[in-house]
Amino acid sequence: MSAVLGSLTPNELACALGNITVQGVYRALKSKGINTIVASNRRKYIPSIEVKRLFEDRGFQYPKQNISFQIVKGGVGKTSLSFSLAIRASHYGAKVLAIDFDQQSNLTRSFNIDAREKSVWINIVRDNVECSKSIIKISDSLDVIPSNLNNSRLDIELTQSASNLKDLIRDKISSIREQYDLVIMDCPPAINKINTAVTCGSDIIIIPINPDPYAMDGLEFSIAELLRVKKDFKLNLDYRIIWNRYDARERLGALYMHQITKDEKKFEKILPIVIRTDATLKNAIFDAKTIFELPKRSAIREDIDQFTKEILGINAWNEQQVKNGVI
Description:
By secondary structure, this protein is an alpha/beta fold. It has 16 helices and eleven strands.
C-alpha cells in the first residue's frame, strides 16, 4: 500500500469541513506551512496529522471509541467494513488501531500483512506480551494488531485461564489506549468467549447485514446474544445496524429493508447509510490497494466516506454548525 494510505484530498477536506472552499483549504494550508503530497496518480493529498490540525482548529473533537464489527453469520462484509472504516477514519485525521481477532486473519491480509510469525492476541493473553509489541504500523495514523491461525486456540486459552472477560480487552489495551481515537475490532462470526470479551470491551457494536434470509437470521441471533451479554455483565453499550452490499435492483433488498423498518426497536438502530454492492472494494484489496487510491470514483467509495463521517460524528458536527449559523 502506498504512502497516501492515510491522506485526504483538498477537495474532500473542503466538503467535510462544510464551511470552506477548496481555495480556502489551500489558503489554510499555506498559512500553516503545510505541504500537500503529490501521488503517482498526480492527485494532491494532505497528510492525516495535518487534516487533524485543521479539524481541531475549527472546534471538532474526535471521538474516543472502541468499535467492534460482529454478526453470527459469515460473508456479510464485516471485515471489509472494518478495513474500510479504519482506512477512511485515518484519512480524516483519527488515530486508529485495528485489531483482528478472527483466526482466518482476513483483516490482516487486507492490510497486506504476513502475520505467520507475528505476535497476535493469543500471545497477549497467554504469554503476557504487551500490546505495543504486537502492533504493526501501517501509516502515521493507522496501526494494526494482526491475527493468524494461532488465535484458533483463543477460546480454549480463555476457558483454561478463567480470564475476566468483562475487563480483558480494556485491561490489555489500557497502556496504549490514549494513543488512539478509535479502536476498531473485527470478530469471528461465532458465539464464543473472545466475542464476549470484545463485546464487553466495546462502546458500540456495528452489525452489518445483507438483504438475504440467512443474514436476517444472523441479525436476530446476534442482537439476542448482545442483549444477553449486556445484561449478564451489566454493560453500558449500544449497537447499530448497517445495510451492506445493497442492490436496489433486487426485489429482496427492498423487501427485507421494509421488513426491518416495521420493527421500531431495530429501525431506530439502523445507521442512515447504505453501502451499495460494488466489486471495486474486492478488486482493490486483491491489488493491495484501497478504494481511495483508485483514480475513478465509485459508489462504494462515496458510501464508505459517508459511513466514516457518520461514525466520527462529522455529519452531526456539520449539522450543528448549520444550526449555529457557522455554515
